[in-house]
Known about the structure:
The protein is mainly alpha-helical. Helix content is about 70%, strand content about 0%. The protein contains 16 helices and two strands. The chain has helices at about 1-15, 15-20, 20-30, 30-40, 55-70, 75-80, 85-110, 120-125, 145-160, 170-200, 200-220, 235-240, 245-265, 290-300, 305-315, 320-345; strands spanning about 275, 280-285. Strands 1-2 form a two-stranded antiparallel ribbon. Helix 7 runs antiparallel to helix 10. Mean pLDDT is about 90; it is low at about 5-25.
Amino acid sequence: MFATLIKIRLHLQRNFCFLLQPYQIMTSVNLEAIFQSKIDDEVKIEPKDWMPDAYRKTLIRQISQHAHSEIVGMLPEGNWITRAPSLRRKLILLAKVQDEAGHGLYLYSAAETLGADRDELVQQLLTGKAKYSSIFNYPTLNWADIGAIGWLVDGAAITNQVMLTRTSYGPYARAMVRICKEESFHQRQGYELMMAMSFGSPEQKAMAQDALNRWWWPALMMFGPHDSESTHSDQASKWKIKRKSNDELRQNFVDVTVPQAEYLGLTVPDPDLRWNEERGHYDFGKINWDEFWNVVKGNGPCNRQRIQARTKAYEDGAWVREAAMAHAEKKEQRKLQPEAAVKAA
């Protein structure tokens, strides 16, 4: 019997040493190579999986920026809830703003699976350390702007976010599936509003054209700088966090949106815009990157206003967070009391 056990042990040592000496083996294996092979094989990375610190940090930065953008993005539209021209429009806008809050919740939760602290992420937003989409630093000047945001801003978001449903990090990809479904509704309601304005009175169509004039170029800036100037694109593409480059996504958006503008009878504010038969795409003019970087650095029309509004909301909501924590603690205590009574008995 003893001899048999010795033979089994020697067999395991020779053929299954990874079971007996996991630490020794794992220190000799290139974990990053294993990680990259999973990425290359389209295997989703999950929270408990090993991942490089740079991958984790990149995801936290991107997901938190996305969450901040959803939360700050409520402000330009929320400004018009009390001034909507009909009850129907008010209900649609209320539902949309509520959806954006939910998107922020999903994304902050996804960031927490990477070890990020939600309160710390919010503080980074309020102190200006963290960024959010630059387009939300532009004002909504008339009701047609609500339609333009739904059509152009949410349209650009969908173009970018559909690929994120296949991003390599599992919790982020799954959150994006639901977000994209809701963003699709937002884009449709925005275009429907623009249709009503464009096919309405001359004054309404002029408002729609004015909104397109002001939101077109900021919408193109949403995809970020040119690929040659994007500091994170190459690595994000290797890790399949991103599936397409900034310029590819921007071109896709232009190709889809220009025919929609033509149907509305509106003119895209770009004298260089024309169909290129050879490329099979629209050529379009140069983006004002000086304006883009100026807004990103905090000098846009509404940067300070947006952060002040979020700071006030955070401070005014302190009692809600405190009450929720107190309720959770009491609930946990009540749960423990019967267990303590049973043990005492």
